Amino acid sequence: MRPKHSCIFIFACMALLAATGDRLTLAAAETNNASLPFVSPMFGDNMVLQRGKANRFWGWAKPGQAVRVEIAGQTATAVTGPDGRWQAEVKVPAPGGPYTVKITGPEQSVVLHEVLVGDVWLCGGQSNMELGLGRTRNGDEEIKLASHPEIRLFMVRQHVSYSPAAVPQGSWKICSPQTVAEGAGFSAVAYFFGRKLQDELHVPIGLIEDCWGGTPAESWMSPETLHRLKDFDAPLAEIERLHAKGGPEYGSFLMHWLDEYDAGSQSNTWAAAGLDDAGWKTVQIPGGFSELGVADVPSICWFRKVFTLPDPLPAGQATLCLGSIEKMDTAYLNGQWVGASSWVENPRAYVIKNGVLKPGRNVLAVRVFKLKPQGGFLAKPDELRLVLRNQSVIPLAGEWKGALSVDARPPHPLPLTFENYPTMPAILYEGMLEPVAPLAITGAIWYQGEANAERAYQYRTLLPAMIGDWRKLFGQGDFPFDIVSLPAFMHHRDQPGDDAWAELREAQALTARNVKNSGLAVTIDTGDPDNIHPKDKKVVGERLALCALAGEYGKKISDAGPTFTSVEHLPGALKIHFRHTDGGLVVKGDKLEEFAVAGKDRQWHWADARVEGDSVVVSSPMAPDPQAARYAWEAGPAATLYNGAGLPAAPFRTDDWPGITANHKPW
């Protein structure tokens, strides 16, 4: 079952990107574009070069031209190939700096200033990696303290591409209170990770934020690898069709479908403030679909509401509250897009920027794509409202105007997926990862999985394949790849059982165990039951740093909590053995909880648990002959088992019974 997330993903409209020719000839086609830079934007003032490796520099010039790269007396020369691209490998000086890099060609030259040599880490994932420092616990105070001149930041601009992109957008910046807070803010997880490394290693640290909220792992993988997995052939074929067709590159199958079928968004859009809707039907919201004849069938309907605001308006931002909606909605105020969501059915709350609302007459237009019978607006009437800055409320329930745009009952086609933000396979690998490679890096950290939770069993294959993809792309061997095990989310369950989020964490743990040079940062003791974006990112970043310090840098430190190794059958009980019990097993809270046992009937019951040395013994009178045990096997468990180093036990199960995601595939 899809979890009822309480925090929604709201995404700005996708940039419209022109498609340019066949995948295999894109690089050659781009060389005819004079805008390709002499030096890739991955190289710039304030950057960090990777110590201990020959660093590859690249850019574009006329074919056959020689380009020279020099740093601290080390030089390398490359000749531009027929495709216009040059690449030179340079041996870098000792860690530290600052250094100056000179890149010279026959027609132009570039000088890079304030360049440091240290360690570079790629920081990928979805919204919990993307979450800016200012939105985390004590964010304002952390920003004030963020003066770290030996930490350098590069934020890859979000970019969708249906074919390999060449040039990343972004620039290197010195870590300061100003730079960590710019825009939506630099990744808090990456920042805390980098700060911990810099404090421990005393070398410059470069952090590359390369992430996008709500995106699944397959969006960050190559088409070639996805084809080998076989699960993604249908969407990849559709992407190829759309690419050949030309036009906008949204990264969302839904957006292309809407372009083709939604009459309300074509020509004179039904969102326009001045639209004459006199011919529309009068409907009641919540509701509306029955009056338009599509109460029980998939459909897209548009609804419009005129309301009056006081003069003068209260200063500051307002919030549009539409309650829970199935399946997706797009909201406009006075013709301006103000929010959209399709990820889950949850209370919509869209923050309205200054200048959108006005005194007097205002027009709200909402497009709703409904899939389920009696879907659409699910809220109670008083949950539909506009809340002004002074907390005064404008009720929105009641009489609206409505019009049917798409009757999508069979045999009308439906989109492959319903997300209205980039979730297509491969589009971010090609748009945001390929342009960064083959930059010399130490390794990568990865905070993602929420978008793949319903396909957790598939993630067992997907995540290792993605790691292999990245390592092949950067061409630097099996570099470290450290994974965040998802934190607690949603409220505690009354009864133990199967859970998709638990299965996703298991897939992450299996990957860290089986893929060479991979680590796992367990964060089950963090999280927020009501917010998929928990604020405690310092713990997450620092535990990732522990993985790196122990794994990549060889520090003799604890980097993992108690980890299940084996189970021993006792009369009426099970004895569970652990490794990483550094300092002994520790119980936090009144007692050891979150253990469950099941007998041969595979029915789960909460268990009594006690510590015996480096083991835990579990039993339940409801399962007198227990066959299997689980710990923290739900989306939002309480963490009660730790080691002496203060690190929580990783969720686990002793059984291998089929889970609820074993046969779940998106297409």
- Number of H/I helices: 12
Question: Structural class, judged by helices and strands?
Answer: alpha+beta
Residue runs with pLDDT of under 50 for 5 or more positions: 1-33
Q: Give the full name of the CATH homologous superfamily of the largest domain.
A: SGNH hydrolase
User: What is the overall pLDDT average?
Assistant: 93
CATH architecture annotation of the largest domain: 3-Layer(aba) Sandwich
Q: Characterize the largest beta sheet: strand count, sense, and whether it forms a barrel.
A: 11 strands, mixed
Query: What global shape is seen?
Result: globular
Tell me what the structure shows.
This protein has three domains: 23-222 and 426-551, 3-Layer(aba) Sandwich (Rossmann fold), CATH 3.40.50.1110; 281-407, Sandwich (Jelly Rolls); 563-646, no CATH class. By secondary structure, the chain is of the alpha+beta class. Mean pLDDT is 93; it is low at 1-33. The two termini are 17 Å apart. The strands form eight sheets. Strands 1, 3, 4, 6, 7, 8, 9, 10, 22, 23 and 25 form an eleven-stranded mixed β-sheet that branches. Strands 11-21-12-17-14-15 form a six-stranded antiparallel β-sheet, with no helix packed on it. Strands 13, 16, 18, 19 and 20 form a five-stranded antiparallel β-sheet that branches. The radius of gyration is 27 Å and the shape is globular. A hairpin with a 2-residue loop joins strand 3 and strand 4 (74-79). It contains twelve helices and 36 strands. Helix 5 packs across helix 12 (537-551) and helix 10 (456-474) runs parallel beside helix 11 (500-514).
